[in-house]
Amino acid sequence: MDINVLLVDDDINIIKAIKRVFDFRVREHAEENIVFRGVSSAKEALEMVDSENIDIVFTDYRMPEMNGVELARAIRKKGREIKIVLLSGDLYPAAGDPGVFSAILSKPVSGNDIIKKTVELCANEKG
């Protein structure tokens, strides 16, 4: 089973750092084929959601043009069953929007945190 993970963060260095950890550590979860992608804007993320079979989106909250909550709402409007995880130093941004996120991870977040949450969300789906 392929699991397509998309990380959205306007800091390209964060994407690169998490990808390095992801590429190294994902071998531990060989029962799942986890494919990692990273983009640096909400616009790119929406294009990827439209063109790829994305299963889980991890999004930063603070980004130019569109924040993580706005991005999650835009993805939900597309009607796709995608798990969305907010990455934020502030846990309050999504408080007024229950159900839009599958989870919230407090920053700073590591590649290991993203791998663990990916495996956890997939395990919950399998039931």
Task: Please give the structural blueprint.
Layout: E1 2-8, H1 12-25, E2 33-39, H2 42-51, E3 56-60, H3 68-77, E4 83-88, E5 103-106, H4 111-126
Parallel strand pairs: 1-2, 1-3, 3-4, 4-5
Helix pairs in contact: 1-4, 2-3
List keywords for this structure.
Rossmann fold, five-stranded parallel beta sheet, 39% helix, 4 helices, alpha/beta, 127 residues, globular
The CATH class label is Alpha Beta
Largest β-sheet summary = 5 strands, parallel
Give the total of domains: 1
Radius of gyration, rounded? 13 Å
Quick overview of this protein structure:
With 127 residues, the protein is an alpha/beta fold. It contains four helices and five strands.
How would you characterize the overall build of this protein?
This protein is of the alpha/beta class. It has a single domain (2-126), classed as Rossmann fold, CATH 3.40.50.2300. The protein has helices at residues 12-25, 42-51, 68-77, 111-126; strands at 2-8, 33-39, 56-60, 83-88, 103-106. It has a 5-stranded parallel sheet with strand order 2-1-3-4-5, sandwiched between helices. Helix 3 links the parallel strand 3 and strand 4 (83-88). Helix 1 (12-25) crosses helix 4 (111-126) and helix 2 (42-51) runs parallel beside helix 3. The two termini are 15 Å apart.
